[in-house]
């Protein structure tokens, strides 16, 4: 069981809303910091543990700055994410470029920033060398195929577009070594939003065995294995969070069993966790605009799937609470909707909630990762502001809400008052 909380009381929230109208996303700095510290602590046994925060989960430099201050780096998959990390003063080997189908300019920017590059395919060795040259540290993304079971978000490994197959992997290290690369890592991300702690230990075992095999076959002593992201969060109150201490200890055992006897004892452990770092500590706050009773009882919010796409995209559960009615009996059944002309624009379907009135503030929980970040402008809907609840209790605007000017900024239409300035 996981209790769903919100860090502001009703009066504090109303104060915030006076200044920043709903909808908005708000993040809890203190909770994010404590959470990162917990992750580092769970792996404090490792010769070196690195967390590269997956920027795509919450691409805001104010949040990345917190990551940096806590000792984390950044996992990037685009030029924009590289630039956001750079803005937050994260650079060099604190950046991991784990992208796929990568364009040349992205490799080039990563090289300029001194990033570690994690290649998604054997053919990318030539492409990288030709277009950007090799980085100081090169890594390859392993797709182990059928030896690992998948889940709904990431699918089965053998159906996933990511990574090199086993034999390609060994060959890739040999090729890169022959071409002069000296420092290497290994990456694998086969799970997403996984709540079973043992899944991470099993992945680590697979990775460690592969690291030993790479050493035997190529003579390369890897500097790190990167277990990727994929630590799930308890979206549903009935879920339990992943026990990071248990995972850390479990991986430690496997490390002692496989890595140390093979003479690879300095091997660092890396992760690219995104969801588990910010997910539970970000909320989408909305106001009820309408109640509509037809075949069902619909509550219409001032936000929509442009602000949080996960329920519509994956049918994902996000817990919902009504401010001031947290302890009220859930004796009404509602569909909680947004305003898109898409019938899947629903934050919840047939959800038991307390009686809701127009004007109520609605909190959608666990929106701190892959929430605002997945926003889009379909139907001309604008993305909301992002706020940071700081450790001292003040609230800072870390991204303003989009305006129509932003939306029209790329149009080039004669006579349009928004016409691009030439
Ligand atoms: C999405 C992604 C992550 C982060 O995943 P979370 O589920 O947010 O932990 C890390 N690495 C790669 C390569 C990814 O694509």
Automatic annotation (TrEMBL):
- Write down the chemical reaction(s) this protein catalyses: meso-2,6-diaminopimelate + H(+) = L-lysine + CO2
Family annotation (InterPro entries): Ala_racemase/Decarboxylase_C, DAP_deCOOHase_LysA, De-COase2_CS, De-COase2_N, Orn/DAP/Arg_de-COase, PLP-binding_barrel
Look up the EC number in the record and give it: 4.1.1.20
Q: Which cofactor is recorded for it?
A: pyridoxal 5'-phosphate
Active-site residue numbers: 341
N6-(pyridoxal phosphate)lysine PTM sites in chain numbering: 56
Q: In which pathway does it act?
A: Amino-acid biosynthesis; L-lysine biosynthesis via DAP pathway; L-lysine from DL-2,6-diaminopimelate: step 1/1
- Residues noted as binding pyridoxal 5'-phosphate in the record, renumbered to the chain: 230, 272-275
User: What is the uppermost EC class here?
Assistant: lyase
Q: What are the BP-aspect GO terms?
A: lysine biosynthetic process via diaminopimelate
Give the signal sequence positions. none
Domain Orn/DAP/Arg decarboxylase 2 N-terminal spans what residues? Answer: 31-278
Q: Which residues bind substrate?
A: 275, 310, 314, 342
Keywords from UniProt, A to Z, are: Amino-acid biosynthesis, Decarboxylase, Lyase, Lysine biosynthesis, Pyridoxal phosphate
State if Disulfide bond is listed as a keyword.
no
| Any Pfam family the entry gives | Orn_Arg_deC_N
A single Gene Ontology molecular function, please? pyridoxal phosphate binding
Which family is this protein grouped under?
Belongs to the Orn/Lys/Arg decarboxylase class-II family. LysA subfamily.
Q: What does this protein do?
A: Specifically catalyzes the decarboxylation of meso-diaminopimelate (meso-DAP) to L-lysine.
**Assembly notes:** Homodimer.
**What protein name does the entry list?**
Diaminopimelate decarboxylase
Q: Which organism is it from?
A: Schwartzia succinivorans DSM 10502
């Amino acid at each position: 069981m996981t209790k769903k909380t919100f860090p502001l009381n009703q009066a504090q929230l109303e104060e915030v809303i006076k200044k920043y109208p709903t909808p908005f996303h708000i993040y809890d700095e203190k909770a994010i910091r404590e959470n990162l510290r917990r992750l580092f602590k769970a792996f404090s046994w490792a010769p070196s543990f690195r967390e590269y925060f997956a920027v795509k989960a919450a691409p805001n430099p104010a949040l990345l700055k917190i990551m940096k201050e806590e000792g984390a780096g950044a996992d990037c998959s685009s030029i924009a994410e590289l630039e956001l990390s750079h803005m937050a003063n994260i650079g060099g080997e604190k950046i991991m470029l784990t992208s796929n189908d990568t364009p040349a300019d992205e490799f080039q920017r990563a090289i300029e920033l001194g990033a570690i590059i994690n290649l998604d395919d054997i053919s990318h060795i030539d492409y990288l060398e030709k277009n950007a040259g090799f980085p100081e540290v090169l890594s390859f993304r392993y797709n182990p195929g059928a030896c690992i079971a998948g889940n709904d978000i990431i699918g089965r490994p053998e159906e996933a577009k990511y990574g090199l197959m086993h034999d390609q992997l060994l060959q890739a290290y040999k090729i890169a070594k022959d071409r002069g690369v000296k420092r290497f890592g290994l990456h694998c991300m086969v799970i997403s939003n996984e709540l079973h702690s043992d899944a991470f230990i099993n992945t680590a075992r697979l990775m460690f065995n592969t690291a030993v095999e790479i050493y035997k076959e190529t003579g390369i002593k890897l500097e790190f294995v990167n277990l990727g992201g994929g630590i799930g969060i308890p979206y549903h109150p009935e879920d339990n969070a992943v026990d990071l201490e248990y995972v850390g200890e479990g991986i430690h055992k496997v490390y002692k069993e496989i890595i140390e006897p093979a003479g690879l004892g300095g091997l660092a452990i890396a992760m690219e966790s995104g969801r588990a770092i910010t997910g539970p500590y970000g909320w989408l706050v909305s106001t009820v605009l309408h109640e509509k009773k037809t075949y069902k009882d619909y509550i219409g919010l001032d936000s929509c799937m442009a602000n949080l796409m996960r329920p519509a995209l994956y049918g994902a559960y996000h817990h919902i609470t009504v401010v001031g009615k947290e302890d009220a009996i859930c004796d009404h059944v509602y569909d909680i909707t947004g305003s898109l002309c898409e019938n899947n624009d629903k934050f919840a379907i047939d959800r038991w909630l307390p009686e809701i009135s127009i004007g109520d503030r609605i909190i959608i929980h666990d929106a701190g990762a892959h929430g605002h970040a997945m926003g889009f402008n379909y139907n001309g809907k604008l993305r909301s502001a992002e706020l940071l609840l700081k450790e001292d209790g003040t609230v800072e605007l870390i991204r303003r809400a989009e305006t129509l000017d932003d939306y029209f900024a790329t149009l080039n239409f004669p006579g349009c008052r928004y016409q691009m300035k030439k």
